[in-house]
Specification:
Blueprint lengths: L4 E9 L6 E10 L6 E4 L13 H8 L10 H4 L13 E3 L2 E5 L7 E6 L14 H21 L5 E8 L11 E7 L4 H7 L3 H14 L3 E4 L3 E5 L9 E5 L10 H20 L4 E7 L10 E8 L12 H5 L3 E3 L3 H13 L1
Parallel strand pairs: 3-14
Antiparallel strand pairs: 1-2, 2-3, 4-5, 5-6, 6-8, 7-8, 7-12, 9-10, 10-11, 11-13, 12-13
Helix pairs in contact: 3-6, 6-8
The structure holds zinc ion (ZN).
């Protein structure tokens, strides 16, 4: 498989010197869905921030519905036909319905009632595994009760710039009879193309991060969002198919990646694990993980008219540089 890219040149006259200035922009096509992305020269679009997240956490805590003493009273319960206990727990993680539903089955799962403040670098493998396990159990419970809800995804908005309306860190699950646009596009990709893409990236090596066992990690060739990573698990199609070993392996990879984001000075991220209906022939369960702008007053959003309305990524983190920064964690 050829990974397609084309270089464009922008030319302008420097306002100070009057000399012509050239800028190179690379347009890349995603090998799976064909959407395009623009890799810009590094221009500091994602500055580190000295914003005091911990102080902001303290400020938001007194009214937080996910904190101890309130989570029991203020969060909804699952319908008994889905889960008789009303909530799904694993370790300290608790899953309950999203008060603001996005689908016929929307769930929120907190890492722990006690972790109102949980910076990216402190999200451990254990916390991730427990939280993911509640979402896996939720997807299975919904599918058992309602087989037409076969499209499951596990997602995260971590910190306000990512779209999170509540500070207290959590994941979100959607189980629905309708795929999202990206679920539909990915499920339509021929199985062979996933294999070809991964084989090409393994051969080229410059964006491939590693194989944690049954899951392969790489930096996106044509990212939708900054520092975007992808992971592919062969042999499973849906979050509902994940066994405990795969959940733990997935949590390990996510913890490595999030530790890398923290090292890069990034504190907010989105994650989407795109499930297809269980039994979809040749479909590998796969995810995107990407960082978002840091929280601070008057910050610049990383999502512009390009991403939101043109569906075109535009990032000034070269994927190869991100792979250099994160690769050692996966290989080490
Ligand atoms: Zn809280």
């Amino acid at each position: 498989m050829e990974l397609r890219r084309e270089r464009l040149t922008a030319e302008m006259i420097d306002p100070g010197t009057g000399d012509p200035v050239r800028t190179l922009i690379e347009v890349r096509l995603d090998p799976l869905t064909g959407h395009s992305s623009r890799i810009l020269p590094e221009r500091g679009l994602m500055p580190a921030s000295d914003f005091d997240l911990e102080a902001f956490a303290r400020q938001t805590q007194p009214s937080c519905p996910f904190c101890p003493d309130r989570v029991d009273r203020l969060t909804p319960r699952l319908a008994s036909r889905i889960h008789p206990g009303g909530r799904i727990t694993r370790g300290a993680a608790i899953l309950f319905p999203n008060l603001h539903a996005y689908s016929s089955h929307s769930a929120v799962s907190i890492y722990s009632p006690g972790l109102h403040y949980l910076p990216v670098g402190e999200i451990t493998r254990e916390l991730l595994a427990d939280n993911l396990a509640t979402q896996v159990a939720f997807a299975r419970a919904v599918m058992a009760a309602e087989p037409q809800s076969a499209w499951a995804s596990i997602n995260a908005n971590h910190m306000l710039p990512s779209g999170s309306s509540l500070f207290h860190p959590h994941m979100q699950g959607i189980v629905d009879s309708h795929p999202t646009t990206m679920q539909r596009l990915l499920a339509d990709v021929p199985a062979q193309r996933f294999d070809d893409y991964l084989a090409a990236e393994r051969r080229i090596g410059e964006r491939y991060l590693g194989n944690t066992g049954r899951i392969q990690w790489l930096v996106s060739f044509a990212p939708i969002a900054p520092a975007e990573l992808r992971a592919f698990a062969a042999g499973v199609c849906s979050p509902a198919d994940l066994d405990d070993d795969l959940v733990s392996e997935l949590a390990h990879g996510l913890a490595l990646a999030l530790g890398g984001y923290a090292e890069m000075g990034l504190s907010s991220f989105n994650c989407a694990m795109y499930g297809a209906p269980p039994g979809t022939e040749g479909y590998p369960l796969n995810l995107r993980l990407a960082c978002r702008s840091n929280l601070k007053p008057l910050y610049r959003s990383d999502s512009t008219f390009l991403e939101r309305l043109h569906w075109e990524g535009a990032v000034d983190y070269a994927p190869e540089t991100v792979a250099e920064q994160l690769g050692g964690r996966f290989r080490g």
